[in-house]
Design goal:
The complex is a heterodimer of chains A (123) and B (530). Chain A has 123 residues and is mainly α. Chain A contains 4 helices and no strands. The longest helix of chain B is centred in the N-terminal third of the chain and has 32 residues. The chains are: A mainly alpha (123), B mainly alpha (530).
Chain lengths: 123, 530
């Protein structure tokens, strides 16, 4: 099972890195989301993978799962959620201000209104 | 008074966190009462934070490390806040910088250019204080995220194309850095079984051979993350663009942000990979030294090539943090004390320089702060004198504190095998920075065009041809620059204090003992419950 999880984390990280290196903002957002998936599964796996072991104290159970990585994953998910929301709005703002969705914001505007705006505005 | 001190002092590690957090919330609640309410609450909170920080520093100088166990859980099971001399010193720096930047923002009406400047500012202070006070690695991650999120908001405050362009790169890079941080923390937890920094330092000494490689990888990944924050080559490329396009008080506050990365390297890598780590001792030092040297050269060249003044100051900030990285890679108490001296100097001078650049920007009308010839700006002699002061200080010329800082760092590197390389790089980059500043100073103040009123400057009285520059907030610049003078005049007492700070920081066994042997408050009300 560890091999499968490791392979999955690797594939998600690869896809995430590939997408993050793209030149448009939306693939970058998706890439960061995939990286967040990968790191969350990685953190969870740091508690050692076992089936059927509870994380909360219960009667008659001797084998517990490590609850701390699960708490770390929850924290990481919540933080990533807030950051992703912010990033999406920032990407929209960049699209509306630059007229294109390139990450560098240096390309030519692609629609008529933005072309007029950028022609009239100074650097 | 004594009673008050007795009540407050056990809680000193947590108060610098609670105060800005609560202040930020209160400011948000009174947001629709107008900007004056927000300004008052924010200013009062920041001033109290400064008083608290100075009190914490004087307290911590008495020798013991103050621990605060959150939730009364003993370390390493609970999260601890650790107030030692280094943390307290950083708290003082943050608080003083915050007061001056906030005063400038209020006086120049920059805080009303967009919504919610003050809540973002207070949350930023909360994140910064938390990062300096925590003793737990995942808690450090959380506080990094808090301070980063507030910094995104502050960077983009006021709007505009350039801020958005700079902000997008800054945000994406820091999100990637956060992911790397989580990978590194996860690996360290998986191998060492703990998140407490002191406990990790202890467990690394008892590490099995087969786990050492993984821990080394995780440590270097952590160095990548802190290096992204501390703008180490090749991870510094976000800094010039971000710092040069944001508003002046935000840029001034960001002068301490790179120092957070540096502090994290000193604290985390210093504790985990210090001398007692055996095989893994100092695995980060060659990297920090080499990349710091390269960063310094790149920063000096960037300062020469800068097209406008704020970009040049951003590269000078990069150069100062590169010098600090070099100093952090040198072993010994002497080099850490030198690092702290240069850190105090560079933080305040860079912040003051950013605020000064705002005045220059206002005064030069259409040409703003571009390094081209323009008409003479109003109050040119006053602003020009400040510029000369800042240039002398930041490039490390005598008689100001930059010279003493660099001298201390270089003299602590005398025993290092690479001393001549370090000396060459530091001095040559210093020369390049002097040339760059001389060039920009003469462009702005000497090589001016024919003397006639430039009608594109604000506050220009066109009837009799005189122009006025609003000097509101110049007090902040004066305070920040006077720190440099203070560092020179009181160099010996300051150096002695910093020596004791450095000694306590490098005393890893005392840190570990104090953190891990801290007993939580005994439950005295247990009898009542039962």
């Amino acid at each position: 099972m560890e091999g499968l999880i490791a392979l999955m984390i690797g594939v998600m990280t690869t896809a995430g890195v590939f997408l993050t290196l793209r030149g448009r903002t939306f693939p970058v957002v998706l890439g960061l989301t995939l990286l967040a998936y990968a790191v969350n599964v990685f953190l969870f796996a740091m508690g050692r993978l076992q089936t059927g072991a509870p994380a909360v104290i219960r009667e008659g159970v001797t084998q517990y799962a490590d609850p701390l990585p699960q708490a770390l994953v929850l924290t990481a998910i919540v933080i990533a959620f807030g950051m992703t929301a912010f990033l999406i709005v920032l990407a929209l703002k960049a699209r509306s201000e630059m007229g294109n969705d390139h990450v560098d914001g240096t390309h030519q505007p692609i629609d008529e209104i933005s072309k007029k705006q950028s022609y009239h505005s100074k650097h | 008074m004594q009673y008050l001190i007795e009540i407050v002092s056990p809680h000193l590690p947590i108060l610098p966190l609670l105060l800005p957090l609560v202040a930020g919330m209160v400011v948000l609640l009174v947001a629709n009462k107008g900007i004056t309410w927000q300004r008052t609450i924010s200013l009062v909170a920041t001033l109290s934070l400064f008083v608290m920080a100075v009190a914490s520093f004087t307290f911590s100088l008495e020798g013991s490390i103050q621990i605060y166990a959150l939730g009364n859980w003993q370390a390493p099971f609970g999260i601890v806040m650790v107030l030692d001399q280094l943390s307290a010193l950083m708290l003082v720096l943050v608080a003083l910088l915050a007061v001056t930047a906030l005063w400038f923002a209020i006086r120049q009406n920059i805080d009303s250019q967009g919504a919610h400047f003050h809540p973002l500012f207070q949350v930023q202070l909360f994140g910064l204080n938390g990062a300096f006070l925590t003793g737990d690695l995942f808690n450090l991650f959380v506080f990094f995220e808090v301070l980063l999120l507030a910094s995104y908001g502050l960077l983009l405050h006021g709007g505009g194309r350039h801020k958005t362009k700079a902000g997008l790169h800054y945000v994406v890079l820091n999100l990637i850095g956060s992911t790397l941080f989580l990978f590194a923390v996860g690996t360290l937890y998986g191998i060492l079984g703990t998140l407490n920094i002191a406990d990790m330092g202890q467990r690394i000494t008892q590490l099995a051979i087969e786990d050492q490689g993984v821990v080394a990888v995780a440590g270097l990944m952590l160095l990548l993350v802190f290096g992204l924050k501390a703008a180490m080559f090749p991870l510094y490329l976000w800094l010039p663009h971000a710092y040069s396009h944001t508003t002046a008080p935000v840029a001034a506050l960001f002068a301490i942000m790179t120092k957070v990365g540096l502090y994290a390297i000193i604290r985390v890598h210093g504790t985990l990979f210090g001398e007692q780590a055996g095989e893994l001792a100092g695995i980060h030092t060659p990297w920090v030294l080499g990349l710091g040297l390269i960063t310094l050269i790149m920063a000096a060249m960037g300062a020469l090539a800068a097209k406008f003044l704020r970009q040049q100051i951003a590269y000078l900030v990069l150069a100062s943090v590169a010098t600090l990285l070099i100093a952090s890679a040198l072993p010994g108490v002497e080099s850490l004390a030198a690092l702290l001296f240069y850190l105090i100097h560079s933080t305040f001078i860079a912040a003051g320089f950013f605020l000064l650049a705002y005045f220059i920007l206002q005064g030069r009308g259409q040409k703003t702060d571009q390094l081209v010839r323009a008409y003479s700006m109003p109050n040119a002699i006053l602003i020009g004198s400040f510029f000369v002061f800042a240039a002398v200080a930041i490039s490390g010329l005598p008689p100001l504190s930059g010279f003493f800082g660099k001298l201390l760092i270089l003299s602590s590197a005398l025993e290092h095998p690479l001393f001549f390389g370090i000396l060459a790089v530091v001095l040559i980059s210093g020369l390049l920075m002097i040339i760059a500043l001389a060039k920009s100073g003469s462009q702005i103040f000497y090589h001016i065009l024919k003397k006639e009123a430039d009608h594109s400057i604000r506050h220009c009285n066109t009837h009799d041809g005189t122009c006025q520059l609003s000097l509101a907030g110049i007090g902040s610049v004066v305070i920040l620059f006077s720190i440099s003078v203070w560092l020179v005049v009181f160099a010996h007492p300051t150096h002695k204090t910093l020596n004791s700070v450095a000694q306590q920081t490098l005393d890893r066994t005392q840190y570990q003992q104090q953190v891990l042997n801290f007993t939580p408050i005994a439950n005295s009300r247990k009898e009542l419950v039962e």
